[in-house]
Structures are given as structure tokens and as C-alpha cells.
């Protein structure tokens, strides 16, 4: 599954990009349905708890990777370690050949990172709960179908972020699906590596 340009947010511990079992924001809905990170980034910027945002600019193909650099200003009283003490990172990206699936991680605590230390995290696949997982050509925005992306109408009775059960595909008996076995995905679907460089 190709991944959409990610949305990356550096924030304090009070911010939640999403929470399992709660309704997705409009910005997250748009990313999960269309792959566009613009609304989610603008949404994040309205929070005082958000320190920095990065909007990725390109699709990440299967097996490929992308690198981004976040900058955290040193606290005037306690230096960089004090600024790190309350800092977390959240990032999400859409699996583009799905209705509204996204992968990533939220509220990664970076307070105890030493200089040059790296940590890796698995990104589960989540269902934003904002669109039925019909898998029809009209509803899949990725190259498998080039259908509709974001639709503000929430047609899914679930309407909350849940762990994604996976796609069915036409190969597994859903005749109306635009997807094949090549579009199935494992859990987790992404790997996130964070390194403190200063």
C-alpha cells in the first residue's frame, strides 16, 4: 500500500491528534479519506499545545522511507532538556488504496531521548470510522481506482476511530471491490524511527 504525504505534529502532552474510540476530527477525516494532510496541519496549528507541524509533500511507496527534521527551541530557564520534558510527536498517513484507513502513531514521548539516541515504533492501521469500507472504485482515491477522496458526509455508523480489520478485496469474495490481494496489508503497516540529533 502506498502511503500519502504524512502529517507530523510536535506538541506537548495535552494534545491528541486522535484517540481510539472517539470521533475523528474533520482534518483527520480528510487525511484518512483523501490522503491530503493540509486540513489536519491547519487544524493542529490552532492549538496552543502544538509546537511545530510538518506536512509531507510526496507519496511514500511500499518499502521506501522519508526523513523529516523537527526543531525544538530550548526553554529559557531549563535549556533543551526542559523543553523536551513535555514534548511528544504524533504522525499519520493514509493507506491510499483504502476507504479511510491510516497508519502512524500518537503521543510518542521524546522526553528521555539522549543525543544521537534512536527509537523505533510500529505504526498500527486505524479506521477513521468516517466512511463505509465498501472498497468500490468510486470510493477509493488511490491508484487502484482513482475514485472520490474526501466526502464530508459521514456515512459510517461507527463514526469513531477503531483498529482496522483489513480490506476484503475481490479475491476474497467481495465482488464490488476495486481491490485485489495485492492491496491487503499486515498490522502494523509502518515503521517510525526517531533520532535526537542535538
TrEMBL record:
<protein>
    <recommendedName>
        <fullName>Spondin domain-containing protein</fullName>
    </recommendedName>
</protein>
<dbReference type="InterPro" id="IPR009465">
    <property type="entry name" value="Spondin_N"/>
</dbReference>
<feature type="region of interest" description="Disordered">
    <location>
        <begin position="121"/>
        <end position="153"/>
    </location>
</feature>
<dbReference type="Pfam" id="PF06468">
    <property type="entry name" value="Spond_N"/>
</dbReference>
<feature type="domain" description="Spondin">
    <location>
        <begin position="1"/>
        <end position="160"/>
    </location>
</feature>
<dbReference type="InterPro" id="IPR038678">
    <property type="entry name" value="Spondin_N_sf"/>
</dbReference>
Amino acid at each position: 500500500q502506498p502511503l500519502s504525504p504524512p502529517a507530523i505534529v510536535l506538541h506537548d502532552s495535552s494534545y491528541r491528534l486522535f484517540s481510539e474510540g472517539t470521533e475523528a476530527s474533520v482534518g483527520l477525516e480528510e487525511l484518512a479519506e483523501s490522503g491530503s494532510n493540509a486540513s489536519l496541519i491547519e487544524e493542529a496549528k490552532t492549538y496552543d499545545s502544538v509546537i511545530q507541524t510538518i506536512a509531507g509533500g510526496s507519496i511514500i511507496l511500499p518499502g521506501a522511507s522519508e526523513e523529516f527534521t523537527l526543531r525544538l527551541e530550548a526553554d529559557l530557564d531549563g535549556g533543551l532538556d526542559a523543553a523536551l520534558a513535555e514534548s511528544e510527536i504524533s504522525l499519520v498517513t493514509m493507506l491510499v488504496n483504502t476507504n479511510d484507513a491510516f497508519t502512524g502513531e500518537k503521543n510518542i514521548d521524546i522526553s528521555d531521548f539522549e543525543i544521537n539516541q534512536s527509537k523505533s515504533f510500529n505504526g498500527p492501521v486505524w479506521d477513521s470510522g468516517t466512511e463505509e469500507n465498501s472498497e468500490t472504485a468510486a470510493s477509493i482515491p488511490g491508484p487502484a481506482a482513482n475514485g472520490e477522496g474526501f466526502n464530508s458526509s459521514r456515512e459510517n455508523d461507527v463514526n469513531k476511530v477503531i483498529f482496522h480489520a483489513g480490506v476484503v478485496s475481490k479475491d476474497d469474495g467481495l465482488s464490488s471491490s476495486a481491490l485485489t490481494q495485492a492491496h491487503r496489508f499486515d498490522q502494523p503497516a509502518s515503521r517510525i524511527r526517531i533520532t535526537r540529533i542535538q
